[in-house]
């Protein structure tokens, strides 16, 4: 494989961005559509046949010698969050492209066909919903839900589909059959600091964490900050702060299981320096791969809500926003990735993914695995996000070796 060619791929794809800091290539926009068309040309130049399905997923296929055998697939996404870096999602697509180019360069034949998939709308930044393309492909997309989705400019998902030559009413036709796939694997940047700190080249993902999310309302009484004695106050901010700290403490007690808890939204009313806060609104995200551990953190949140209400005389309630189940990667694929790393002398770590990926939808559909390459300083969803070309090429070599084992090189 060619390092300079891989570097050029990243440089060229990074040109497809809207104005603003970093990469701004939101799902189903004209900019993202132009990037997809660019990628289609690159796949075709590498000898692959390409089609776009009813959800906007791009599927590039390298034919095997026995067409009826199930395919060995890989891929990721090229849409971004606002002010993104160059590597989230795109690493899995461009590394896969380089793998396909190398097979064409060497005229390597395989028994099974291979596919590279660019999944549509992996990020939730535009419509508030993530992994729409892989949900559609795996038959997990709720049509009623998609009809309600609107971006910050009031454009509906249906309108965005029409602008891309798609019909939202036909998105169910993107679903594929399980027997079409032998395996799906996704390469991704880690989006965390573990591989870099452990000086490891590859993370073999064992499971993908899933969040349970809550909205917490803390109601107090607005009072004058100068005339209300401290022991007469019903301060909603301080009550919310106690609850947030309780979430942190409960998650710290679950370090062994890697469960995390985050209060990502914390707003107060009326928001004046000389007024005791009367209300606090909080959004809480608790996620992990161990459901029992995650439940313990949820229980700690529920306990804190009750205790803070009683101790401070506040009106506190919580509503569940969403709840998803953790997804285990296929044990056979996990072990095969480890074997590939051992054969190549590559240092690897088995680890969970704290972020969601298209692989979690594919895992409910076919044998699925995932590998990470390092992220400098653990940064992601950030213009400073960085993974070196050498690290990406190492990932490409491992991915290629795995896919050739699965597709059976002739």
UniProtKB/TrEMBL annotation:
Peptidase M20 dimerisation domain: residues covered: 213-310
Keyword ATP-binding: no
Alphabetically ordered keywords of this record: Hydrolase
Transmembrane domains' residue ranges: none
Top-level taxon of origin: Bacteria
Keyword match Acetylation: no
NCBIfam families: hydantase, PRK09290.1-5
Protein family according to the UniProt entry: Belongs to the peptidase M20 family.
Protein name: Zn-dependent hydrolase
């Amino acid at each position: 494989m060619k390092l300079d060619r891989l570097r050029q791929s990243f440089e060229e794809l990074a040109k497809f961005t809207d104005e603003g800091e970093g990469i701004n290539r939101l799902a189903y926009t004209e900019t993202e559509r132009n990037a997809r068309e660019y990628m289609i040309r690159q796949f075709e130049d590498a000898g692959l046949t390409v089609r776009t399905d009813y959800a906007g997923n791009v599927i590039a296929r390298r034919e095997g010698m026995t067409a009826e055998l199930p395919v060995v697939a890989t891929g990721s996404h090229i849409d971004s969050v606002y002010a993104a870096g160059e590597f989230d999602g795109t690493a899995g697509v461009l590394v896969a492209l380089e793998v396909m180019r190398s097979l064409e360069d060497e005229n390597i034949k395989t028994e099974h066909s291979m596919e590279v998939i660019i999944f549509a709308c992996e990020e939730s930044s535009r419509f508030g919903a993530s992994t729409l393309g892989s949900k559609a492909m795996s038959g997990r997309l709720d049509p009623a839900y998609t009809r309600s989705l609107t971006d910050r400019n009031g454009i509906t998902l249906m309108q965005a589909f029409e602008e891309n030559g798609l019909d939202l009413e036909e998105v169910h036709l993107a679903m594929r059959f399980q027997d079409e796939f032998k395996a799906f694997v996704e390469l991704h940047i880690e989006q965390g600091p573990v591989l870099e700190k452990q000086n490891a080249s590859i993370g073999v993902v064992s499971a993908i964490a899933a969040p349970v999310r809550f909205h917490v309302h803390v109601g107090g009484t607005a009072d004058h900050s100068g005339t209300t004695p401290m022991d007469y106050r019903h301060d909603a901010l301080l009550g919310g702060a106690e609850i947030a700290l309780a979430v942190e403490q409960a998650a710290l007690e679950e370090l062994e299981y890697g469960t995390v808890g985050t209060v990502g939204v914390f707003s107060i009313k009326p928001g004046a320096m000389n007024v005791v806060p009367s209300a606090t609104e909080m959004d809480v995200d608790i996620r992990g791969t161990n459901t029992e551990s995650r439940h313990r953190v949820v229980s700690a949140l529920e306990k804190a809500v009750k205790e803070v209400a009683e101790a401070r005389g506040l009106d506190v309630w919580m509503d569940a926003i969403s709840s998803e189940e953790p997804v285990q990667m296929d044990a056979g694929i996990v072990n095969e990735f480890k074997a590939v790393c051992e054969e190549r002398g590559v240092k690897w770590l088995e680890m969970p993914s704290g972020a969601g990926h298209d692989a979690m939808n594919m895992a409910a559909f076919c044998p699925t695995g995932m590998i990470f390459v390092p992220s400098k300083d653990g940064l992601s969803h950030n213009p400073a996000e960085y993974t070196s070309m050498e690290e990406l090429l190492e990932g490409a070599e491992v991915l290629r070796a795995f896919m050739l084992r699965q597709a059976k090189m002739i």
